[in-house]
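W.,

You were right to be curious about this one. When I first looked at the sequence I had no strong expectations either way, so I just let the prediction run and decided to look at it fresh. Below is the sequence, 407 residues in total, followed by the output.
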Amino acid sequence: MQSLINKKILLGVTGGIAAYKSAELVRLLIKAGAEVRVVMTPAAREFVQPLTYQALSGHRVYVDLFDAEADSAMDHIELARWCDLLLVAPASADFIGKMAAGYADNLLLTLCLASRQAVAVAPAMNQQMFANAATAANLEQLNARGTLVWGPDSGEQACGDVGPGRMLEPAHLLANIEAHFQPGRLQGVELLLTAGPTREAIDPVRYISNRSSGKMGYALARAALRAGAKVTLVSGPVSLAPPAGAKLIAVESAQEMYAAVMQAVAHSDIFIACAAVSDYRVEQQAEHKIKKSTQAMTLALVPNEDILAAVSALHQRPFCVGFAAETRDLEKYALGKLDAKHLDMIAANLVADGSGGFETDVNRLEVFWPGGGHSIAQASKQEVAKQLIDLIGERYTGALSAEPGSA
């Protein structure tokens, strides 16, 4: 069955032992009906000869930015306009770093900058290189700009190491490409999402807050956008780039977040409360900085409005998804919150065992709904977000079909 008929795929190949797998990917893409052009970096030629990809694709292979045999003096513009998707597989650590920094010193990097279509990368590198903080930061930066990051896989590597860093297998990449061109599970759905911490002012220079980085919420926003949703993101103070395509509403305090959510919720089909909202605020904020003294100080705190409970209690409410960050008795507290706030779903995680949560790039979740549940294993927050959005889409669609009068 040809699932990619008339789709134009531009495949970028960088220097790495996984380049041999890209030949199989070209074959699978052609079999699926796609038209394929291949661009190689100079380093890629040290692993596989261009003639291999030319024979498989039926087209000349592009390598040099300034090629005397080029079809056009502006190949980097024409190829970028031609493709429906640009996939770099394998994407080496070096290439990912240059791409994140906006380099354009070879044809493939120039194409990544010039393309208006979706760009995806399939990382492939030694497990220690993948674990390096610089690589993690580069991938996070690319993801925040809207670049699709597919993989990597984990397992035995050519160097003998075992761990994450293997390029996804060609069949897996083909499945990702096919899914990319299919209408998303949340196509046209209005999704409202909160993310990050809130800050409750004590005086003009001090505040009460928490350790939330906003990474999970922002990953959910990007995953929802890729699933076809129209996303409104109400965000507390974070140091993250806004997800491309989302409507961002920046707030600081819990009261500001409550007001923003209640104003936007009337037009929302799904509400995901991922923000770590301060439960309390200072009853009386000082007008000026409180001066240090040797005396003990007591702050009177009053509870903030429970945003999730307020949305769930609306007469015409959206599909409501809550989050529960716990340090113990995860299932007990998550199910209690699910029942007490009459939620459709809750995603819970432990934040005290090092497996995810605040200030990390990984997470794992236990997801519950009335009468069921599902575990999402530890992975990057981007992968966990994708799985959770898929699950939310499935449950949301099921809830719609179960409504009286639905076909």
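Here's what jumped out at me. The chain has 13 helices and 19 strands. And, maybe more interesting for your project: The mean pLDDT is 90.

Coffee later to discuss?

I.
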